[in-house]
Amino acid sequence: MLQRLRGSSTYVLLGAVLVFVVVQVLLSLGAINDYWRGILFWGAAITMVSLGLNLIYGFNGQFSLGQYGFYAIGAYASADVTYRWVHSDPGGLVVVIGGCALALLLLLGVSALLRRFYGVSTLAKFVFSLLATVLGFFLAVRVLNPVVGPPLYAFLQSLPAVVVQQVVFFLALLGGATLAGIISYLFGIPVLELGSDYFGIATLGFTIIIKVLADNTDTLLPFPEMKGARGMVGIPPWTTWPWVFLAFIFVVLLMRNVLHSSTGRAIVSVREDERAARLMGINVTSYKVLAFVLGSFVAGLAGGIRAHDLAFLHPQNFNFIKSFDPLIIVVFGGLGSMTGTIFAGFAWILLLEGVLRLYLPEGFETWRFVVYPLILLVMMLLRPQGLMGKYEIPFLRQRLPEPRKKAEQTAEEVVA
Given CA atoms 289, 290, 294, 300 in this order, what sign does their dihedral have? Predict the structure, then answer.
């Protein structure tokens, strides 16, 4: 079995390297123009968002419409870090990274403290966690930024410009994704107590709240550089094919390894039967929160990649109508199938923004919003389980251990 696993991993690794090299060569030679380059990068970003939703909905069974809200958080947070950096202000980097680090440490402390008491209410856990998060970011703004900001900026400026750009971009992506995960944790503490349908409505409301806040970042929130409803401009276009490829591979490997672990089996058991999982000693609420946080972290990472590809962010790109896009992709590819989500994500963008936009007769471009719902409707009638059902390619498929008798026979043959 180990030999088959290694062989499968080797073929997948070689295939991934081949895809990376071929696309990089085509981009370098100009064979892929800027339009199709944007389609490729957009496809990777929306697929990462959809993989996160598939973890929440397809594997954990929690119907969510909040992915675009966390996608927006990751996009705006990472864009603010890099925007401030290119304007000689390290404050965004220090506050986002330092605030997330302090908030995580304080949240761990709060969690350890509350575990000492029996019967702590959900409201109490939410209040203490919220206060810990606010305290972490308050300390980052008031203490870390003035103390750490100037020496950090001086140190990084002493490095080669190419290295500094890559380091700051990496930290911006990490900070935006982590911030999305922290906010999803705070949001999930009270809301995941609700049933699946009510949880979906709550997450839809969360997406609307994030969109309204994005419309008012320059009035209600102290971020004039985001320019509110006018849209944020001046974001450095630092997203390149290597960053897109690495982020995408990271998301796929993260989900694969989580789902193939005991944690992943617990996450799936909650989807199958919450009551049975609880009777087996599984902390259902904790695994719901874990799946929600991981899915939101992935969405935040995709938002950072997308923001630095467009170099422009507008709140209208994150309205509640757009929040249905990842859901359509997950259902189209197949609930509980990473392979189906990956295929459907790229196919959806290629069809909607590539083929239908370019090849419909002039003046009929908007009809693509009629064509793809019809395709989805036909597929739901003919194949309701999605294109792939629950099929996975061998690399993403979980391999079960060999039967005990067969393993013992193999061991005896080796000894003989």
Answer: positive
